[in-house]
């Protein structure tokens, strides 16, 4: 399901919508450890660039009841192992950028039969004991700032 979600999200569209003209030639990050200017950088996430047709092809192999083609007006939700393909999308309330990207993702995934439920929460809840650190989320959008040194991930 993670692959299908990744293929269903147009990260370049999020960059264009959120940053508009300021985006310039900005491309989505394809690595969480290295920046594109570093020698060790590999575009690991590039294989999940927006491809809703491929996402549907994969969903059809393991799930039932979804749409036959991407459609913005779709109302069918896939059933996978008896469960609906429905996920809570968590972000920090009051963050307009995250709210905008969630709306884009919600529409894109709806078109391929994956439901996103909005779950904007106060930062102290998202990052508190019952939030991300506990694993108490389906999908969480947040910023993780690094220096480009893989050692920044040591504590994670």
Which class of secondary structure composition applies to the elements? alpha/beta
The sequence of SSEs as H and E is: HHHEEEEHEHE
Distance between the termini: 24 Å
The assembly state of the depicted protein chains is single chain
Radius of gyration: 17 Å
Please explain how this structure is put together.
29% of the residues lie in helices and 14% in strands. It has 156 residues and is an alpha/beta fold. It has a three-stranded antiparallel beta sheet. A three-stranded parallel beta sheet has the order 5-4-6. Helix 4 (96-110) links the parallel strand 4 (86-92) and strand 5. Helix 1 packs antiparallel against helix 3 (52-62) and helix 2 packs antiparallel against helix 4 (96-110). The longest helix is centred in the middle third of the chain and has 15 residues, at 96-110. It starts with a helix and ends in a 16-residue tail after the last strand. The mean pLDDT is 93.
Give a nutshell description of this structure.
It is built from five helices and six strands; from the N terminus they run αααββββαβαβ. It is of the alpha/beta class and 156 residues long. A three-stranded antiparallel sheet has the order 1-2-3. A three-stranded parallel sheet has the order 5-4-6.
């Amino acid at each position: 399901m993670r692959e299908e979600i990744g293929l269903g999200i147009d990260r370049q569209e999020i960059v264009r919508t959120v940053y508009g003209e300021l985006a310039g030639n900005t491309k989505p990050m394809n690595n969480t450890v290295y920046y594109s200017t570093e020698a060790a950088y590999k575009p690991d996430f590039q294989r999940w660039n927006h491809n809703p047709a491929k996402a549907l092809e994969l969903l059809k192999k393991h799930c039932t009841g979804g749409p036959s083609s991407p459609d913005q007006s779709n109302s069918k939700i896939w059933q996978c192992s008896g469960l609906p393909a429905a996920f809570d999308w968590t972000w920090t309330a009051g963050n307009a950028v995250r709210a905008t990207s969630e709306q884009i993702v919600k529409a894109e995934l709806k078109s391929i039969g994956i439901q996103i439920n909005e779950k904007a929460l106060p930062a102290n809840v998202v990052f508190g004991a019952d939030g991300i650190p506990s694993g108490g989320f389906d999908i969480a959008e947040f910023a993780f700032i690094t220096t480009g040194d893989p050692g920044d991930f040591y504590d994670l």
